[in-house]
Amino acid sequence: MVTANATSQAASTGAAVSISHLHHAFSLGKQTVPVLENISLQLRPGESVALLGPSGCGKSTLLRLLAGLEPQQAGQIQIDEAAMGGPGPERILVFQDPTLYPWLTVRQNVLLGPQAQGKKGLEPKADALISRMGLQAFSEAWPRQLSGGMAQRAALARALLNEPRLLLLDEPLGKLDSLTRISMQRELIALWQQQGYTSLLVTHDIEEALLLCDRVLIMSPRPGRIIAEFALRYPGGVYRRFCAAADVSPPSRQSAAAAASAGYFAHSWPGRGLVRQGVIRGVLILTVRRGFPGAAR
Question: With 283 labelled, which of 1, 80, 209, 264 sits at a CA distance of 20 to 30 A?
Fold first, then answer.
C-alpha cells in the first residue's frame, strides 16, 4: 500500500512536468492532419498519471514529444521548470513494441543504456531486474527466442535500469497474458515506490489505470484534447495501492461508495474481494476481482 510517506519519498526524485498549449500535426502528402490540440497538463514529481482515450487520438504522439523523439511545433514543454531539450536518459519511453536489438542477448539489451553512458558495475542490478521480470532463465537468450510478452518485459527491465526521473509507458503490458500482467502490475507499483520516478502511462485498460495511477486524464478523439481529469484518491489526499491482500486495512463498503459518489475513485477490499469503484463522465464503474485467498464467492 502506498502511504502519504511513500508518496512524499517518491516526489524527491521524480521530474516535474509542465505542458502548456501544445499543438501538433502530421503532414501526409499535401494534407496537414492535426493530432494534438491545446494540450495543457502538469505532472507533479513522483506522480503516476494515466492517459485514456480512443485509438488514434494522439496519446503515443504526446509520449514521443515528452521523450524528445518528435520536434515540438507549437506550445511549451518544461521539465523541472526548464525548457525541455532533446532525448535524454532521465526521460525513458517504453514503446508498444519491445525494440530489442536482435544481435544482443536479453542481459546485454538490459545493460545497454548504462553502458552507453559509461556506467559500470550495474550487472547485479540488471540481473535482479531481469529476475523480477521473470526472465532469469532467459538472461542469455536472443530476442528471437522470446515470446512477445517476454520481449516486452525485457524492454521494461532495460528502461528501469536507467533509473529515469520520467518514465513514459505506451501500453507496456498490452502483450502479456492475464496472469503475467497482474504480476507485472504489482512489480510496477513496487518499482515506482522504490525508484520514485514520475510516470505517464498510456493504456486502454481502465482497471489498469485505476490500479497503477494517481490520476486519469481522458482524451477526445483526434485531434486529441484533455476533456476530463479524475483524481484516484480518497478524500484527504491519501493515495492507495494494493499489492497483496495481506497488506490491506479495508475501508468499509459505505466509505468506498461515498468516495465514488463524491467523484473519487476508490480501491477497497469489502468482503475480501477487490472492489474498484469510480465515476467516469457520470458512469459508475464497479469491478470486483475474485480469486484472492479467502475471496467472497
Answer: 1
